[in-house]
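Subject: sequence -> structure tokens, single chain

Hey, anyone have a minute? Need the predicted structure for the following. Not urgent.
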Amino acid sequence: MKLEGNKRALALVPPLTFIVIYLGAGIILQARGVEMAFYQFPSVVAVVIATIVAFGIFHKAGINENFKLFARGGGSVDIMTMLMIFLLAGGFSAVAGAMGGVDSTVNLGVSIVPPSLLTAGVFVISAFLGTATGTSMGTIGALVPLALGIVDKTGLSLPLVMAACVSGAMFGDNLSMISDTTIAATRTQGVELKDKFRTNFWCALPAAVITLVLLIIFGRPETAVAMETGDYDLVKVLPYLLVLVLALVGINVFVVLIIGTLSAGIIGIAYGDLTVITFASKIWEGYQSMIEVFLLSIFIGGIAEMTKHYGGLDWLIDNLADKFHGKRSAQVGLCILAALTDVATANNTIAIIVDGSMAHDISVKYDIDPRKTASILDSFTCIVQGLIPYGAQFLLVASLCKGRISPVDIIPNNWYLFLLGAFVILSIFLPPYERLTLKGRWDWEKKKVVYE
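Reply:
Had a minute. Here:
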């Protein structure tokens, strides 16, 4: 059974149900003054309700037929690949953190930053840590307490330093090979991690360089005080560097993450931070940390398949066609779609998973290179996530600062995120810049980049 005409719009009700429940619960709880309001209602429960709605709307096809569609979407090659990468990335992050990798990275960074460049240094450390660990929340949690100490001793601007922390963390979240946003963006669009990284990098790099210059100029402390730093060991930073380098040279991501986890485990055992048993336990803890996004991906994949089968995506794309006047306007539409979905969900990974299937179909219709689509989805969800005051990143900063600052104070100073948005838009409208970000061309038949 396939819906015809405007009835196809009914197929969009299930994904919209998820967004409305998730957003609505957050708004209600926020109005009641609940902390972390947009993260209180479990996303997996919301998506299960949306799945029930989907089965109800399409009941005439029968439960068995609908379940076949749902299972085909939830168990597709791209979804299963994404799930495995999520688990492996979670395991690596947990093991590397447990053996002291995060502490060593932060302490190493602070030890080599000149006192007069501390604000810029915070941005660089945050960016590296976010890229290495793949988590903006983990980066902020590790760095903000240290940054607070820097502010208190040097008289630096608290909003500017916190903005440097958040901006650097979102830089890493956006570019990291093991970030769940990168994994979701590349798998939903069917592109390699390294190809998306290269496309994204040429937008992120100039934005980061300009931000760094601005922070050097406007972020100097009143007094250049040398900071006391904790112990660090270069060996404990190596697993992060190993994962980054291996991924960039094109090694299969499964192999990269397994090597990274093993190297972190061996170092941890050698230094006495881990035993064989705690090594295994930390891997399992890492897997458990990915359970929410793991289950969410399966359900969203199933709903997306049903929505596509019953014509919902076709209806939406057909109606958007009047708004799009070609390839470039379609790319701007993808930017807006990603931004609005993140505003609604307050979670960049969820936003990408929700948008992934529709964004892919838009890319096919308008011949948009999927590397660019993946980059747009990841970039604009990260940009908005770093600017919405009810996002987890800002809420964590406010909590760690114990009421000394509000998200509204930080947002105007998130220069990197504003610049990243500007460079992504420029890469759409300036042909020479677009060619720089997209080396080679995408072959839709071979589903890979072809260099001529």
